[in-house]
Amino acid sequence: MHIVVCVKQVPDSAEIKIDIETGTLIRAGVPSIINPYDHFALQKAIELKKAHKCKLTVISMGPPQAKSVVQLGLALGADDGILLSDRAFAGSDTWATSYIISKAIKKIGKIDIILCGMQAIDGDTAQVGPGIAQHLAMPQVTFCEDIKIDSKKIIVRKLIDDGYEIIEAKSPALFTMIMPKDFEPRYPAFLDIHNSLEKPYHQWSMCDIGAQEQYIGLKGSPTQVDRIYPPPKREKAEMISGGVSEAVEKIVDIFEKENFLKI
Amino acid sequence: MPSMDTISRELMLDSLRNYAKKNLFHEFLREKDANNEFPAEILKEMYDQSILGVHLLLIPKEYGGISGGTFDVYRVCEILARIDLGIATGVFATFLGTDPLSVGGTDEQKEKWMTRIAKENLLVAYAATEADAGSDLVNLRTRAEHVLKNGKLIGYKLTGNKQWISNGGVADVYSVLAMAPGGSSWFMVEKGTEGFSPNKHEDKHGIRLSNTAGLSFDNAYIPKENLIGGVEGQGLTQAQAVFGYTRVMVAAFGLGAGWEALEVAIKYSQQRIQGGGPLSDKQGYTHKLIVPNAVNLEAARAYIEEISERLDGGEKGLQTEGAIAKYAATESGNKTAEDAIQALGGYGYTKDFSVEKIKRDAKITCIYEGTNEVMEMTIFRGRWQEHLKTRGRYYIDMADSLQSLHLESPEVGADLAALAARALAVIMEECRAQRLTRHQHITFKLGKLISLAELAFIFAKRAAAVEYTETIKFDRNVWQAMSRVYAKNAALQIAAEGIALILGAAEKDIDLAEALNFNTIQALQKGLISDMDLIASKLKDTFKAK
Amino acid sequence: MITVLNKCIGCGKCVPVCPFAAVQMIDKRAVINEACTLCGACVQVCPVDAIIIEREDPIHKDFSAYKGVWVFIELEHIHKKGKAAGTTIQPAAKKIRKVAYELLSEGRKLADTLNEELCAIVLTDKNTGYEKEIGAYGADKVYLVENSELEEYNTDVFSTVLVALINRHKPGIFLYPATIMGRDLAPRVAASIYVGLTADCTALSIKDGLLLQSRPAFGGNIMADILSPNSRPQMATVRPNVMKLSEPLGKAAVVIKEDIKIDKSIKRVKVIERKIVHDKLSAKIENSDVIVSGGRGMKDINKFKVLEQLASSLDGMVGASRGAVDMGFKEKSRQVGQSGTTVSPKLYVACGISGAVQHIVGMKSSDIIIAINKDPNAPIFNVAKYGIVGDVHEIVPKLIKAINKRVNSR
C-alpha cells in the first residue's frame, strides 16, 4: 500500500496581527506552522504505515521554506517527501492548487490512500481535498475522525451533524481528516529531525509534474481577489453607564422588555 | 562543526517549544521554584532520544549524536532560557561536562563516553570550581594521587572538594578537574564511585530548578583510562580551549531570558491603561524601560550570531569574542529583566507574573562561566594586545571599514559606529602614552567600552546585510533603526566615559574633545527620538497583546 | 470536448455509469454520443484513463447562455427526539434544512438584481411537495431529480447529477450551504467543470453583472471580495445562519422534473453504520435562542463556569471565543466564530470577549448583542447593541442575582 499525505504550511493564526491603520497583515515575526488538521492527517498516516507496513509519501505545495512541513513529515516517519514549488504556482486558488497536487500525485504513480486535513486554518475552505479527488477521479470521504485498514477495505469514521457514520471505501480513495478534541500533536525528537535529512526529498516544478500553464497560478485560477479591506466598522454600542448595580438593573430591564426572562 | 540548515534547526526549536508549552507552564515552574526542586523527570524526558534528546546536539554523529554547531547551540540555549534558566542550566552543564572530553579525549575515550552519554541519556556535570578556585584555577586543591600495582600506574585516588557544581547532586557522570603529579588534569567520574559523594542542594537566589551542589572526594579510586587524554597536565589547556563557545551559550541565556522578560513587558504595556491610554504609547515608559533594552538585546544577538558563524566556519579560540558576547548579552539580559519588573509595577513584584522569577534567574548569567568583571578584564587583555601589536591601528582599521560601509548603507548607523571605534582608538592610545592601564579601574572600564564599540560594529555590519537570519523578528527598517540607536549611544558613551577616565587619571591637562570628534558625535545624535518612536511602535506590533 | 483515446480496452465500465446513456460500445471501444453533458462520470470509472475531457479556454468562452441563480436544497432526515445516545439512525422522512431557505432568500435578491430566475435544485428519492416551501422563499422553479438512488447523500452520485444539470441548463450562479454535505459536494463539482468556488461567503452582491463574493480571510483578520469572471456558474458556499430569512410568500415554485439515469456502480463508498448522539452535551449551540459567550477575559476555567449560571437563568446555552476554547475553558463544539460555529440567536451576551473579527463574523447577525468588557476600545462594542465597560467577574454574578430577583418578584 502506498499512502500520500498532503500537508500545508500556514501562518500561526494565534499570532496573526493586523495593522489597524492600513488594514494590511503584519507578517514580520509571525511564525509558520503545519496546518493542525494536516498534522492530524499526518499522524494518522504514520499510524497506518506502522500498522500495515505501507509506504508513506508526504507532499506539500508552497514556497521553498515550506520544505519545513515536508521535513516534519519525514522526521515523524514518512518515507519520502515532495515539495511542489515554482514561481508559476503563486496565486493559485483552490481549483489550481488541487490541479497541481493531483498532477504531482499522478507522477508518483499508483497510490492507494490520500489523506488531507479537512481544511487549512488560513483559508478555511475545505476545497482542496475534494478537488484533488475529483482531478484524480477518486472517491472521497470528507471530515473523517478516524481511519483504519481492514484487509482490503478502508473503514473511516465520518463526522455528521449530530453523530457519525462508519463508511467503507476501497482503494484508491481520498480522505480529509478532522482531529478529535483530545488530539495531541506529536513533534519529532532532535535525532529524528537530523536523520530525516537523509531520506529521499524532491522539489518539483511545473515542468516536473507536467502541469499545464493555463491551469495554474493566478491566471489559471477561476476565482480572483477583487479587493482586500479591513472589516467594516459598525456603529458603536449604546453604552450603559452608571455604577455596576445600576447597569445591571438596566440590562435586566432590557431582558424583560425583550421577553428573555423565564416565566 | 558547522551548524545545521535553518529548517532542521527551526524544527528542533519547534519541538522544544512545543514540549515546553505542554509541560513547562508558569504554575509548574513557579511551584518547583518555590520548593527549590530539581525537575528530574523533565530533564529525563528532555534527554530521552524518542522525546527530545537535546543533549545529542553536542555529541558527534559518529557517537550517536547530531553534531550541532555553535549557531545551533546558541539557538537552543536561547529558547531553553526563555522557558526556564534553571532547566537550561541543567542542559548546559551536560554540554559543558562533555567539553573536556571532546577537546582532549582520546578516540577510545570519546567512543566510550560519548556513546554512553548519547544512548543512555546521561546527565553530566562539569566540576572545576572550588572554594578558592573560581575563574582562576591556579589554586586548585583537589588532588589526584597515583595508584600503583606492581610498580605500574593503574589509576588515581581523588581527594578534595568541589563547590557550586551544576547537576552536582543529580549527574550520572562528572568531568572533574584535579591536580595530578604531572599537573592539572580532567577525570571522568561515575556516580556511585566509592569515596565520592555529592553534598546537599544549594538554596539559591535564582535558577532554583537547577541542581547545584558541592562534591566531596575522599580517596575515590579512578582507573587510569578515565584520565582524559591519557596524559597528565593538560587540564587548563583543555578547559580554556572551549571558552569561546561555552561563553556564547551563556550569552544566549542572557539573550533568551532578557527577551522573555521584555516580551511580557511589551504585552503588558498595551493592556495597562494609565492617564487615558495604554502605557505602550507613552514615551516616558517605552523609551526608558522597553526600547533601550530591545536595542541592546538585538545588538547582542547580532554579535552572538557573528561569533557563532565564525566558530562554525572553523575559527579556533575566539576567547575575547566569547567574553564580549557573554558580557554584553548577560548585562543586557539582566538589566532587561530588572526593567521588566519596573515595567509591570506592583504586578511585576509579585510571583504571579513570570518577570519576578526571570529577574532572579537572569542574575546568574552575570556570575557563572566567569563573572562579568572577569569578562571585562579578559576583553581588555585580549584587545590591549591587539592595540599594541597593530600600533594602535586595530580600532582605526575597524573605523575605516565602517566608514566605507556607511557609504554603501547609510541607514545602519555605520558612521556613528565608526566614530565610536575611532574614539576608542584615541582613548586606548592615550592610555598607553600616559601609562594609565596601571589603574585596574581603567582597564575594566576599557573592557566595557571595547564591548560597546565592537557590538556597534557588528550590529551595523549585519543590519546592512542583504539577507537576515531567521532569528530577526523585525522588518529591515526597524532592525536598522535599532542599529542606529545602538551606534549613537555607543559613540556618545565611549567618548564621554573615555574623557572621564583619562582626565580622571592623567596628570597633565589635555583637551580630547577634538580628537574624539565630540562635535560630530553630538551632531549625529539627530533623529534619535524618532528612531526610538519607530522602534516602540513596531515592538508593539510584533508582540501584540492578545 | 470529450475524447476516447486508442488505449480504450473496451471493458464497458463506462456504459452503465453514464447518467444520459451517452456511451455505447462499438467494436469493443467506447463511443460517446451527442447526449453527453461532459459530467465526467465515465472518466472517473475508466481503469486506463482512456477518456479525456478537455476544457475550453475560459477567456474565449461565451457566457451569454448562462442565466439564472441556482440554490442547492439540502434535505435532512427527521429524527425522532429523545432517542438514546448511540442509536443507529433509521431511514426516515426528510425535510428541507433551514439554510436552504436562507440561501433562497439571498438568491432572490441576486436574481432580482440580474433580472433572472431563481431556481432550486432538489435531489431526492421522493418529492413530498417541497415546491411549496421552496416557492415561499422566492424560488421560481424547482429542478427536481427523483430517483431511489438519491435517498441518501453520496458524493459520486450527487456530484455527477449536478454536473449533468449544470451542463444541461447552464446557470449563471450556483449557491450551496457550507454544511458537511455542501462542503463535500461543491468543490467536487467545481473541480469537475473548472469553475470558481468561494467558500463561506458572508455577503453576496452583484457587481457589473458578476457575483461579488465577500468572505473573511486570514483567520478573519481581513475581508476579501472574490469574483469568478471567467467561468460559469459562479459558485459559492454560505454558512448556516449567515443570511437573513425573508418573509415567506404564498406562492409555489414550478416543478421541472429532470430525467437522469443513475447507475449504482458509480457509488464508490458505502455507509455501513450511522449513529446519532442525542444528549445534552451535544445540543447544538446554533439552535439556541439565547447564547452567553465568554472569552479569554474570563481568566480561567473556574471563573468561566459562572456563565453557565447566567445562561441557565436565561434558558440559553454557553458559547466561547476561539481564545477561550484554545485555553481549554470550553469544548470546541461551543466555539463561536469563523473557525467554529456561526450563530444568530435572539440574544447574545459576550463576556470578556474583545471581539476579534474571527469571532464577530460568527455572531454579528444575532438580534440583540450585549457586551461586557473592561476595555472601552474593545471591538466587540462595535457590533454590540448595548455595552457595559467593567469587570465581568463583578458584573455577571450581580446580573444573575438581579435576574433571579426580578423573576421571583413577578
Brief account:
The complex is a heterotrimer of chains A (263), B (546) and C (410). Chain B has 18 helices and 9 strands. Chain B has helices at residues 6-23, 26-35, 40-47, 70-83, 85-104, 107-119, 235-240, 243-271, 283-312, 319-348, 354-362, 372-389, 394-408, 414-433, 440-463, 476-505, 518-523, 528-542; strands spanning 124-127, 143-149, 152-166, 173-180, 183-190, 196-201, 212-223, 273-274, 277-278.
Can you characterise this structure?
- The complex is a heterotrimer of chains A (about 260), B (about 550) and C (about 400).
- Chain A is an alpha/beta fold.
- Chain A has one domain (about 1-220): HUPs (Rossmann fold), CATH 3.40.50.620.
- Chain A has helices at about 35-50, 65-75, 95-110, 130-135, 190-195, 205-210, 215-220, 245-255, and strands spanning about 1-5, 10, 15-20, 25, 30-35, 55-60, 80-85, 115, 140-150, 155-160, 165-170, 175, 200-205, 225-230, 240.
- In chain A, the strands form 3 sheets. Chain A has a 9-stranded mixed beta sheet with strand order 11-10-9-12-8-1-6-7-13, sandwiched between helices.
- In chain A, helix 2 crosses helix 5 and helix 3 crosses helix 4 (about 130-135).
- Chain B is of the alpha+beta class.
- Chain B folds into 4 domains: about 5-120, Butyryl-Coa Dehydrogenase, subunit A, domain 1 (Orthogonal Bundle); about 125-240, Butyryl-CoA Dehydrogenase, subunit A, domain 2 (Beta Barrel); about 240-365, Butyryl-CoA Dehydrogenase, subunit A, domain 3 (Up-down Bundle), CATH 1.20.140; about 385-540, no CATH class.
- Helices cover about 60% and strands about 10% of the residues of chain B.
- In chain B, the strands form 3 sheets. In chain B, strands 2-3-7-6 form a 4-stranded antiparallel beta sheet, with helices on one face.
- Chain B is globular.
- The N and C termini of chain C lie far apart (about 75 Å).
- In chain C, the strands form 7 sheets. A 7-stranded parallel beta sheet of chain C has the order 12-16-11-5-9-10-17, with helices on both faces. Chain C has a 5-stranded parallel beta sheet with strand order 20-19-21-22-23.
- Chain C has 3 domains: about 1-55, Alpha-Beta Plaits (2-Layer Sandwich), CATH 3.30.70; about 60-275, Rossmann fold (3-Layer(aba) Sandwich); about 285-410, 3-Layer(aba) Sandwich (Rossmann fold).
- The relative contact order of chain C is 0.11.
- Chain C has 11 helices and 23 strands.
- The model of chain C has no long low-confidence stretch (mean pLDDT about 85).
- By secondary structure, chain C is α/β, with parallel strands linked by helices.
- Chain C is about 25% helix and about 25% strand.
- Chains in contact: A-B, A-C, B-C.
- Strand 11 (about 165-170) of chain A pairs antiparallel with strand 18 (about 270-275) of chain C, so a sheet runs across the interface.
